[in-house]
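Weekly modeling sync, notes
Attendees: S.R. (lead), two postdocs, one rotation student

Agenda item 3: backlog of single-chain predictions. S.R. asked that every request posted to the team notebook include the full sequence so nobody has to chase files. The rotation student volunteered to paste the first one in as an example of the format we agreed on. Action items at the bottom.

Example entry:
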Amino acid sequence: MQIAARHLDKTTIFDVSGDIDLATSPELRKALLRELREARAPRVVLNLKQVRYIDSSGVASLVEGLKASRDVGSRFVLFGLNKTIREVLQLSKLLRIFEVYDDEEQAVAP
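Predicted structure, as returned to the notebook:
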């Protein structure tokens, strides 16, 4: 998995590629929590277009990011979910809890 961060106004966008699994999810969790808790970014957007697979530890990292965003009053947004990731979040009843968009333009809109 690779994570690249970019900034657009007061939004941090993480472009993630590869698989989010037990081996890589701690790196994602660390990046999310640093941006939310330490940098206090008003909005953190996760681009998952290049993510092929996510397991339960990856989902746990997303949930932890969402919780941290709520704790500090930030928005946590996901976009670019493929069919597999969408299904995982749907089955775990989390799809309706996350703010999810189809593309970056919608995700970063005010």
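Discussion: group reviewed the output briefly. Residues 2-108 form a domain with the Transcription Regulator spoIIAA fold (CATH 3.30.750.24).
Action items: rotation student to repeat for the remaining queue; S.R. to check formatting next week.
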